[in-house]
Amino acid sequence: MSINPNAQIEITAFAWVPEFAHGLVRDLRARWALEEAGLDYRVRLLGQERPDGYLKQHPFDQVPFFDDGVVQIFETGAIVQYIGEKSETLLPRDPQGKYRAIQWTYAALNSVEPAVQQRVLLDAFYGDQEWARLRKPSADEFARLKLRRVSDRLADNDWLEGDRFTIGDLMMVTVLRLAARGELLSETPNLIDYVKRGEARPAFQRALQDQLAVFREHEPQGEAA
Ligand SMILES: N[C@@H](CCC(=O)N[C@@H](CS)C(=O)NCC(=O)O)C(=O)O
Predict the structure, then answer these.
(1) Is residue 62 within 6 Å of ligand 1 at its C-beta?
(2) What is the separation, in whole angstroms, between the first and last Cα of the chain?
(3) What is residue 165's DSSP assignment?
(4) Domain ranges of the chain
């Protein structure tokens, strides 16, 4: 359950990204799921220039792309579900439990992430522009509404479906970490604790440290940095 250059499973990741994205690049989701499942994997590092043919693998030219010699998958939702299907730790086997977990991965990716991302990107990339200043209050309200809904459902449970961590939590925690960067969790303290619980998992810590180690190793030197 670690990085192993001879592993069958390969994921792509970036060799380096600017500091604000450290710990947020989405290969972290695949790494975390693989660590939770106890599966060895290797990482193919990409730069800004993608290798020839990469678009054939990932139609949006992004990371991560997953290949275990059996399936090739883009999109973290599908990748994490596939890994979950290999590990009962991440995805219950009974149909209701399984689809409760899967529904939360969709909720994280489709109901929560777009609202959070919109709001966070306004500050990260367009902070000084007038249109962004005007857009911010409604984007903020929309993101906070989605977060309140998750917060209400989570209530004082450890995980979204009670006491059992699943791929739904894995995905939701990664989305909420982005919300935390944008200081969007201030009204939902149970989500702050929920993120901390996710981040405290040894598998998360291994995944995060492995991603950060790659960026440190490839930090541009001098002017280019
Ligand atoms: N919906 C995709 C999003 C993947 C994504 O946004 N990847 C980013 C890194 S976090 C990326 O590769 N960005 C570079 C680009 O879009 O050119 C997923 O969940 O896999």
Answers:
(1) yes
(2) 33
(3) -
(4) 10-89, 95-202
What distances in angstroms separate CA 22 from CA 13, 187, 192, 221, one per listed residue? Answer: 12, 25, 19, 17
pLDDT tens digit string along 173-224?
999 999 999 899 999 999 999 999 999 999 999 999 999 999 999 999 875 5
pLDDT band at 1 (very low <50, low <70, confident <90, very high): low
Cα 26 to ligand 1 centroid, rounded to whole Å: 7
- In whole angstroms, give the CA distance from residue 21 to residue 221: 18
**Is the CB of 34 within 6 Å of ligand 1?**
no
- Determine the Cα–Cα distance for residues 5 and 10; give it in Å rounded to an integer: 9
How far, in Å, is the centroid of ligand 1 from the Cα of 62?
5
pLDDT digits (tens, 9 = 90+) for 19-33: 999 999 999 999 999
Architecture of domain 10-89: 3-Layer(aba) Sandwich (3.40)
Provide the pLDDT for residue 222: 74
pLDDT higher than threshold 90 for residue 147: yes
Q: Indicate the residue type of 67.
A: D
Instruction: Give the ligand 1 atom nearest the CA of 64.
Output: 20
* Residue given tokens 């990260």 in the structure block: 124
Q: Whose CA is nearest to atom 16 of ligand 1?
A: 62
Q: What CATH topology corresponds to 95-202?
A: Glutathione S-transferase Yfyf (Class Pi); Chain A, domain 2 (1.20.1050)
Whether residue 90 is predicted with pLDDT greater than 60 in this model: the reply is yes
